[in-house]
Every structure is written in structure tokens, then in C-alpha cells.
Amino acid sequence: MQSSGLALTKNYAFIRHNSSNCHPAKANCTYCFYRYKIGVKSCVCPRIVILTDPQTSKPNHFAKFVPMTTDPASTQNQTEDTIVALATANGLGAIAVIRLSGPQAIQIANAVFKGKNLLKQASHTLQFGAIVDGDVVLDEVVVSLFIAPKSYTKENVVEISCHGSPYIIQSIIKLLLAKGARAAKPGEFTLRAFLNGQLDLSQAEAVADLIASDSKASHQIAMQQLRGGFSSQLQVLREQLINFASLIELELDFAEEDVEFANRDQLKQLILQINKVVFELIRSFELGNVIKQGVNTVIAGRPNAGKSTLLNALLNEDRAIISEIPGTTRDTIEEVLNISGVNFRLIDTAGIREATDAIEAIGVQKTMDKISTSALLIYVFDVNELSAAELKQDVANLQRPGMPVLAIANKIDLAGKRSIGFSLPEAVKYLEISAKEKQHIDELKQLIYDTAIQTRLTGEETVITNIRHLEALQKTNEALERVLYGMENPVTSDFLAMDIKQALYYLGEITGAVTTDDLLENIFSKFCIGK
Questions:
Q1: What is the pLDDT, as a whole number, of residue 397?
Q2: According to a count of CB atoms within 10 Å of the terminal CB, is the N or C end of the chain lower?
Q3: pTM for this model (two decimals)
């Protein structure tokens, strides 16, 4: 979409003004009538969209909202198209679902459906019949009808459940395209749900996270965000800021009278309160990223310490070859272990020692490389062979800032009452086990979980997993810090208003209250086609 044309946001659009026809000193947003000054990036209207100049990447000149009835010839409103895509996974299967969405979805489906007249059926009904191409029956199907606005996209939606033959799927989609549908772009169904007000932007992103969730914890967070928990929290913050921003803006209209409509003490308390919430959300990203991506966990130690035996014990299967011969493991072995809904990517590595040949040297180097990028290190040692001084030195050599270390004393089934954990730094957690006899393996799993996931998940807390949200919250925090600085070092209301608007802008970026075409394209292009 060109920056000089029409931009869409839910049920409103705005057109850029010509630079030769500038506003007077102040103007009103035609949606919320909020007064803003020329030179400020945006008003606080929750539906504003900023178009950027493709050459300078800076916001264009002021724009005003107009009803969506405007449709310039130079810009086609893409939501007037009817789109089609396979909604289920590609490949052979018992059933496949082909989805249509748009104003002509029912008419197009009806044109190829042999059965009841779909145009006369009620919403949320199933119709049995056949898809026909002329006299040729392509398949017997069940058609699901969702009439606007009671659908995922708030448009007319038709879902055709057919047999999962790739030939049948392609034939039906080809037929629907010939009848006037257009092939959907990645994420276009969810994009339409956003543009039509069914979802906000953070909820739309949660749809992708839900599809990609591969653990109980990641599913739990995606569902919480999809239900609007995160959005509701941000909306409360924005509304509180908008109220004060309106009062400060009003002061600008009465600058000559030198009056204050916004109580500065109340504003300061509000900013501190909001900043506390924002900071907690920023802090939650560390946990959220771990849950979304999984925890890289390296199992390292000297040769013949029992690393591969421990991997097998944790997985409860014979995944790695084990033997009494030191240096059996030459390459890394990676497996996923789910503990209490969180995925841990376990990496068994070659024993750390002076290599005896070139191949072993490569294996040892790979071990060190994996340790350098790991989120958690499990250092396994033979409690019968290693002294307290050697253990302390080994851990010191491998430890790095920010990486938790578990020192695991193995082979206690062969040892007497001997513990050397006292020699370790307090930050290093120590546990005695027998990997071969599977003694204390459950305790080790709990220790791994507790070390990596220090916050217990209840399903009610808001956890940030999206780097885009993190960056917007960090910028919000910076803007609010500037507001506090301005209040401690008295500045004019103009500057306070600008910083508050910046905070509102970045909060609005998360939910889509403020957005750009480039941002939307970047987000929805990562979705699968059909969603």
C-alpha cells in the first residue's frame, strides 16, 4: 500500500493532506475530536495509523480520519476480495478443510455445490452435498456456513470439508479460483479478523503462537493472550494516560491564562504506577522467551562421568550409546525433554579432556561451543574419581555470567558416604544421583525445572513472549521516564504532552491501535497460508 494513498484501520481510513495545504496551528482528529498540535507524530486517538514515507522512513504529514466509504481508484480495498486457501496441513489425510472468506464467499461456494441452496441456509449450519465442475463430481463434502459478522473474520466464511487427497484439494481450490475467489496470502484470514475488529494485533499474534505451541506452558501463555488478558491490561494503561494527556492538551489551549487542569501529583503517581506494570511485563520476557523457545541445556563433564547414561535416564530410553571406554561420545546428541510443560533441549556432549586424536578434538571443541550458547549447564562428574579441588576448578573453567550451573555427583551407588559439594560456590546447585540405577532422577528433573523457571505459572499472569512487544514496552518505559524527568525538572506542558503521546504510541503499537502497513505485512507474512 503506497504512503500517498489510503490506509486501513478497522472501520476507518485516513488520507494524507498535501503539504501545500497545511493545517492551522491546531487541528482536531475527526474521529475522537482530540486537539493536537502540528509537529506531533500522532494524536491519542486509539484508531490512528501512521503512514511512513518509503524514502525517509519518517511519518508523513498530518492525516485525518474519514469513513471507509471512500475508495480512491488508485487503491483497491483488498477486503472486498473473496479469498480461498487450504486451512488444514498439506499432505495426505482423511479430511481437508478449504476456507473461503469475503463478501462473495457463499455465492462462489454455491456455484460449485450440488445440494441445498447455500444462499438460503442459516449461519452456523452444516450442509452435505457434492462439489461439481460441470457434470463432473469432484468429491462429496460437508459445507460449514458462517454468515457475517458471526465468523472468525467477521465476513461471510465458508469451510468445505473434503477428502484429504492432494488431487481433490487442488481441483476444488482451482475451481473456486475460476469462480472469482483469490488465493489468500499468508495470515490473510487473521489479518482480516484484525482489520474488522474481531481481534487486536497482540491477539492475532497469539493465534500464530498457539499454532506453534509445542508444550503445555507455551500453549497456556498463547491462550491467555488470545483471550485478551494482555490486551485488557494495556487498554487500561492507555485509557488512564489518555485522560491525563487530554487535560494537559487543554492547558495548551489556555496557555496565556497559566492554568493547570492536570494535577501534577496525581500524574506522577499514575506514571509511577504504569511504569511499574510496564517494567514487570518487560521482566516477564525472560521467562516467556524460555517457554516459547525451550531451554538449551548442555550435559558436560569429563570422559566416562556418565553423561550419556544420564541422558538416557532423563529420557527414560536408550538414546545414547554407553560403554566403559572413555571418549565413546564424539559428537553432540540432542533430544527434547518436557518437564512440567516446559521443553528442555538436552545436549549430550563429548567428554572434556586433552584430545588424543583429531576427531576427539573436534568433539571437545563442539562441547565448548555448545556450553557458550547454553541457558543451563549440567556438569556431571564421577563422585569416586574427582576431588573437591578438581570439581571446583572444572566448574570455574566452564561457568560464565548469567548461566546457571548444576553440579551433579554421579555413581553414588558405587561410593561410600562421600560428598564434595561443599567446595562449590553458593550459586552452583549440587545433587547426588546414580544415573545407572536411576536414583534421584525425579529430584534432578525438578531441580532443572526450578533452576530455569523461577516463576511458577498459574495461567493468570501476563507473560511476554514476543520480541516486538518487548521493544515497544522498552520504548514506553523510556518515554515515561522522560515524563517523570520533566516533572522533576519543570518543563512546559508541550513537552510533557509529547512524551505522554510517545508512550501512548508505543503501547498502541502492541495492540494495533497504532500501526503501519509495513508492520502488518511483517507480522502476518509469518503466518501459514489458510490462517
A1: 85
A2: N
A3: 0.56
